[in-house]
Write a structure and sequence with these properties.
35% of the residues lie in helices and 19% in strands. It has 516 residues and is of the alpha/beta class. The strands form six sheets. An eight-stranded parallel β-barrel has the order 4-5-13-14-15-16-17-18, surrounded by seven helices. The chain binds xanthosine-5'-monophosphate.
Amino acid sequence: MLDDMSDSDPSFPLIDERTGRAVLELVRGCTFDDFLFAPQRSVLPRRDPSAIDLSCKLSRRITLKRPIVSANMDTVTRAPMAIVQAEEGGIGIIDRGFRPGEIEPQVREVEIVKRTQHGVITDPYSVWPAATVADAMALMTRSRVGTLVVVDGEHRLLGLLTERDVRFVDGSRASVSERMTPIDRLVVHRGGPLTPEEAERLMVERKVKKLPLVSRDGRLTGLITARDLVRQRRLPFATRDAKGRLRVGAAIGATGDYLERAAELIRAEVDVLVIDIAHGHSAVMDRAMREFRKHFGQVELVAGNVATAEGARFLLDLGADGIKVGIGPGGGCTTRMTTSFGVPQLQALVECRLAVGASGVPIIADGGIRRHGALAEALVFGGDSTMLGSAFAGTEEAPGEIVHKSVLLPESQKTVKVPFKVLRGMASIDAIRDRLDVEDADKVELEALGAEGMEISVPARGSARTIVRDMLKHLCSSISYGGASSLAELRSLFWADPPRFLIRQSASARRESYER
Ligand code: XMP
């Protein structure tokens, strides 16, 4: 598995200036479907995602083992999507499509992700020994946790209380201390930190499913559960924080309640914040990022969207830890149609890649990936990672109700009911209306809304997990065709000699490639 892989540097390689400028000239006005890569001599024995290093940088301080990010759209990423993405090695960014003042629902989504899995639970739910069993049971129900730690006033471990200890007990009479398993009958780890492997060995040896950790003076420092260890082993590529919890991001916007929202999300231990506005190269962004840094110092911050070298340099100078690139390529987006502004995504990626240069600030290629093959292009031309929205719309983990629509089958001329979910651009009129408190909103403000997004019905399909896994298999095949053995190597080979790879497609070649 991971150990078999070459441990390549996940950073994007530095591009020689002359080569960069030549490629930029070639891709000006172009996007994914304008190019193919010429197949190279393959060196991989098998195209197995578990054996190929796909790691990349999301932001300055966060590395992903898989280069996939689910978009901060209210029909794409809430906790269920973010959990699947992080379990599969990418990350989800929880959208901010909640009304101003409604910060708590977004925070709750982050908390759900952070509480899904642990390495060490550093703040396990606890009760006093003198509490009644009824109190303890109420806490178990509220927190949906079946084991409570029992501590004294100085946080010294006294015992464990599980659901089994309180079954069939008169809760109002019995106290926790009567029913708990006291510390002298528990397996406890005392002293310094424990690796997951050491914890697993100890738990197997002593046949326990819970392992409390205490300091030398008996104070509780954490709890390790067999369930969490099993999950860690089953998901070796998952994106985890230092405490073994899944990582998650959240979007905050650049006006209104964004600072308050950021403060609450940081309190919930969100891993990265995303200031995300349609036009990130703007005075609004300038003010928002300066205010953000003034309030929150070095919290990991991705900013966007931009699509030009000037835009990328602007965000770099403002201290972004990651830059989201893409103006107008998104599936639910109408910016280019309604404004005639935007940059074809391949040109945008090369321009911004050259602009960030050796800064070490990664680029997220955001939008326009409509077929799996475009992933490899986004990741080779300039994206450290890719952000996708429509690709995950309609999946089980995408928010929103399923609606059944009548569809006419052309072959049989029969009408059948097909399940659909809605994908809507975050700048669609409905998404904006939902975000604004329509009751309180200024009438003029509502009338001035210019939509730059639309609503699309997407057939309901299975889990996003299957989609991610398919994408990764195809990405590994791209790496194999490219004569590389890792994502990092594919990028290096390409940028060492772009003409060896690049084939500009004619209109008829494009038809041959994509029309089926
Ligand atoms: P895909 O192509 O994966 O793109 O669906 C997802 C990205 O599209 C952007 N997005 C929008 N852009 N108006 C826009 O101009 C919109 O209403 C809109 N909604 C989403 C966004 O960058 C997302 O990550």
